[in-house]
Specification:
about 350 residues; Aminopeptidase; Alpha-Beta Plaits; 5-stranded mixed beta sheet; 3-stranded antiparallel beta sheet; globular; binds zinc ion
């Protein structure tokens, strides 16, 4: 593929068409495609319709396809999917956005996009979804548009799949993919739902940590108990839970579960050297969130702790206990405690195994 000589005219084309690119992005940003709230289902459909219409102008066969939830867009550049002689990429993005509450924390209306000045002097776009994921999504679509308008064709075959439920865990999207997997055969996949390393440092993400959620249920007595009668004698599941959690990490931040790190590979030395150069420090990373000391393995760089190492982000919420406290039932010893739990798997390691006794 000798595409390099064409690159400069394509980039020039993007610059020349910049205002129109921005207007197309803003039109998408104005749609309140909040997937979590059923009140915005119509807006989600409107975002899907608008995107499919826009992608069709690039010569793609583009369709809004129903799922059990918000619809997905499937678009193909050659109309027949995989199997041609050229490389075929499957491109993924999502058009749904996070809710905007609480509104009082916004400096301006979240669905009225503007270009504004950042404190550091850069121009930035402010709107809900601008950086997750409508901005990235439209960057790819605009790149296709510019390439096609300059060269008359695209350099590779492309299938796009754009979902509307990423912010709610892609619940209906996974069954949709399974059911239609023949439409998504490709040589490689390109996911645009990633970010830059920093304002001036772009990043190519080649793999991501996996995530496994589980729920641990601790049952003690066969009913909730009055603490004045049973306290001290009856086992309290909160006490059991805190003992378990307290033993998960040693003093060096290492997870103590036997075999937890089995098969987790160390980074290749050249990658580790590159990562060191990025200088991720507690000051730059933790200070803005009010922390100063990394919580992970002490003999690992902070960047390894958050990108490549397996970790447990232990308890998301101790549901029943919190509900009891919310009701003001401080004197109740709950019989059962359900604890959702999350484990991050390393991108270069093995799949997570769960063993149950
Ligand atoms: Zn996203």
């Amino acid at each position: 593929m000798s595409s390099a000589p064409q690159l400069q005219p394509v980039l020039d084309r993007i610059d020349a068409d910049f205002d129109n690119c921005l207007e197309r992005l803003f039109a998408l940003l104005r749609i309140k495609s909040i997937s979590t709230d059923p009140a915005f289902a119509g807006d989600c459909k409107a975002a899907a319709d608008q995107l499919a219409k826009d992608i069709a102008t690039l010569g793609f066969s583009a369709a809004v396809r129903p799922t059990a939830g918000h619809p997905a867009i499937v678009a193909s550049s050659n109309g027949k999917g995989n199997g041609g002689s050229r490389p075929h990429v499957l491109f993924y993005g999502h058009y749904d956005v996070q809710p905007v509450d609480p509104l009082r924390l916004w400096h301006r209306p979240p669905f009225e996009p503007v270009v504004t000045d950042h404190a550091d002097g850069r121009k930035i776009i402010v709107a809900r979804g601008a950086q997750d994921d409508k901005g990235q999504l439209m960057t790819f679509i605009e790149a296709c548009r510019a390439w096609k308008s300059v060269t008359g064709t695209l350099p590779i075959d492309i299938t796009m799949v754009i979902e509307g439920e990423e912010e709610i865990g892609s619940k209906n999207f996974v069954p949709f993919l399974e059911k239609n997997k023949a439409d998504f055969k490709a040589d490689f996949a390109l996911v645009c739902d990633t970010g830059m390393w920093g304002p001036n440092t772009p990043a190519l993400t080649t793999s991501l940590r996996g995530l496994v959620s589980d729920e641990v249920k601790i049952r003690a007595a066969n009913r909730d108990l009055h603490s004045g009668v049973f306290g001290g004698g009856a086992q309290n599941p909160i006490r059991v839970l805190t003992r378990i959690l307290g033993s998960l990490f040693d003093d060096n931040g290492r997870i103590t579960i036997p075999g937890f790190y089995d098969g987790v590979k160390d980074l290749p030395p050249d990658i580790l050297a590159q990562w060191k150069d990025l200088n991720l420090s507690p000051d730059s990373f933790l200070k803005p969130i009010g922390l100063s000391i990394p919580a992970g393995e002490k003999d690992r760089l902070l960047i390894e702790q958050v990108i490549s190492r397996e970790s447990i982000w232990e308890v998301v919420k101790a549901k029943d206990a919190l509900e009891a406290y919310a009701r003001g039932d401080y004197s109740v010893v709950p019989a059962v405690l359900r604890v959702p739990n999350q484990v991050y798997a390393p991108p270069t390691g093995r799949p997570i195994r769960f063993e149950r006794d």
